[in-house]
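Our preliminary data section would be incomplete without showing what the modeling component actually yields. Below, a chain of 233 amino acids is followed by its predicted structure, encoded as tokens that our downstream tools consume directly.
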Amino acid sequence: MQSLRHSWEIILQESKVLAEAVGISSHFVTRRRSSRLPNADENTIEEKLQLEAINEFKCCVIFPVLDSFMADLKTRFASYELICHLGSPILTMDLDSDQLKIKTKLLVSKYPKDLAHADDLNEEILHMKSVRGTEFHSENDPLRLLNSIYEKKLEAIFVNLCTGIKLFFCMIPVTVSIAERMANSLKIWQRSITSQNRRKHLAILGTENVLAKNVDFSDIIDHFSQKKSQEGV
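Predicted structure:
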């Protein structure tokens, strides 16, 4: 974004080429000032007005938008950096023993009601490091690692580690677009044209749309048809 801010002339030229290619005028809307350059010809006046319009657009629109966007990015990156620093024991698992003790103590002190003693979490992480290559194929993604632990039914062994991974994902900020989609999905609760049970099922399908996309509907259709045929009998 910093580089983009200092490349205004290149952006302007590329925009003009693109505008002409799709049949859009590349000229900026100008405000005629008759008092400016009274002795100049029409072309000189138009060039002067175009330059003023471009500079006004750059200073009043492009730069403020880019500056605001970069400020938001810095704030978000700072938040993610803090979260990743706090969750570093369960994210990397490549820390040495001294660093691991410090990081686990910091994480446990942040969530004392959810995590047990730091030594317990430390032991679980060390255990995971020793078996990750053989049992979990050196899985580095925290969510996949968590799912693998539950698939192998080892959550009782890695209680604090599983809790730590869940806490990490709870700490990650959720984008507004996701929240808006969830809100739109839940709007079906307000409909009065269907039953309460149907609204509940539709809300679950809307919020759990990722899982719903992987459902094999052929089995559901067969089950429904068999059930209906039995009811008819």
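The chain has three domains: 2-84, 90-171, 177-217. The mean pLDDT is 79. Preliminary results of this kind motivate Aim 1 of the renewal.
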